[in-house]
Amino acid sequence: MNQAWLYLQEFLIFKLIYPILLKYINEHLITLTEEMEKDRRENNIPKLEAEYQQLPILRYIYSILFNYLHENLIPRIDLLEQCQEQNNLYQLKYQEVIQIEPAISYQEIPVAFREKEGKFEFTNPFAAVVKNIELFGIHAIGFTQEKKIILETVLDRVDVLEHTAISTLRQGFNFQYLARVGNIEHIDLACSLVNYWSPLYAHWIYEALTRLEVLEYYSQKTGKKPKLIIDNNPPIWEIRSLELMGYVPEDYIEWNGTRAKINELVVCSKRREGGRISIKACHWVRERILSNVDTYGNPNLLLSPKIFISRRKANARRILNEEKVINTLAKMDFVPYVLEDLDFADQVKLFAQAEFIIAPHGGGVTNIIFSQNLTLIELFGQKISHFYYTVAQGLKFDYACMFCEAKNEDIIVNCEELTQIVYRMTKTRIG
Questions:
Q1: Is the pLDDT score of 1 beyond 70?
Q2: Which among 135, 188, 241, 330 could disulfide-bond with 140, CB atoms 3.0 to 4.6 Å apart, if both were Cys?
Q3: Domain that holds residue 364
């Protein structure tokens, strides 16, 4: 009876009632305001309060959904225990501890940064093999045969699971949801890199590529090579990054966006924990990509060791007085780059030889994973994030942050203050 009820709940919530209901609400009852659009651009986990204000009953509708999710998920600890009992667990046995030092700044350091300071120990990375899995929806949520959700398929975070479910159900009803299991796509052995954030550059580099280390360990131990499942219509940098990691088109398939039955799903652990990235995983990705990058890219690209990253082609966090900033930095031999104009391989080469980088917070800073012995000054406006602070500190780079005047979603940089920080960081580096 309990199992039958679970099947019915999963069917009604994920495949019939909620897809129809949430799509209708999203398209007809909720007005996307300018403030909501801004929140969605600036926050990977957008707030729901504005929607609740427009449609109070939505809070109740979501509460039913969230209760179902919370009651039917398999957290990491349970996944490990189950796979250990079935001899389907493969773990890299090494200890990793990092020390996050305080950031350098002339201004008060935000609490979000302070909370990450100190020593942090990572868990051992693992590949867990789970049988008879159904991947569901645009973000490939992993359901077991018993209709339990594998939390690791949604980045091992309950808040990400909630928003993944909302995003999935807002796509609406699809007749594939009602198809018999025998009539949907079948894959014998696979590893999914698809999730709510995988189309985002930083999350792809730090949370998808880093998983491949333990996947390859699994392949070494078993002699099996799972098919990678990647985003549907992936951006060119996603394909190029896999190419530089040594993967060819025959090694992966694009996610179909609806359903697939996986006989054996290799679930590889996320290498980012507690807002901190595994530095061993970063070094592994860096070494792999740099070993292949020389055969790609533009041989005529000017490579300056002192780099200023422009966000002039971005939608937010642009520097409104950028010309003045560029002129100020040019006196100290900094060269501006617009990363949207560069191929992925060229970005790798640029950052691999960099000594000093100044950049507004944004996806381009992701590329510091390819750097060595770097000094980084990160510029912030309204949005404050510890993401690259923890990466830089973990990689033992010299890191400083500057909190600039916010003009809506863009920023205005105090060039005199920036010059002072550059001078201070240069002395720190020399000293």
A1: no
A2: 135
A3: 306-430
Same domain, 264 and 311: no
Q: Report, as an integer, the average pLDDT of 15-34.
A: 95
Domain assignment present for 288: no
CA distance linking residue 216 with residue 253, whole number of Å: 17
pTM of the model: 0.94
205 and 341 share a domain?
no
pLDDT tens column, 99-146: 999 999 988 899 999 999 999 999 999 999 999 999 999 999 999 999
Q: Please tell me whether residues 199 and 245 are part of one structural domain.
A: yes
For residue 329, give every residue at least 6 positions away whose Cβ sits within 8 Å of its Cβ, in sequence order, or none: 306, 308, 336, 358, 418, 422
DSSP of 385-416: --HHHHHHHHTT-EEEEEEPEEETTEEE--HH
* Number of domains observed in the structure of the chain: 2
Asked whether the beta carbons of 317 and 362 are under 8 A apart, the reply is: yes
All residues at 6 or more sequence positions from 343 whose CB lies less than 8 Å from its CB, including other chains: 240, 296, 297, 298
pLDDT band at 431 (very low <50, low <70, confident <90, very high): very low
For residue 24 the two structure tokens come to 């209708």
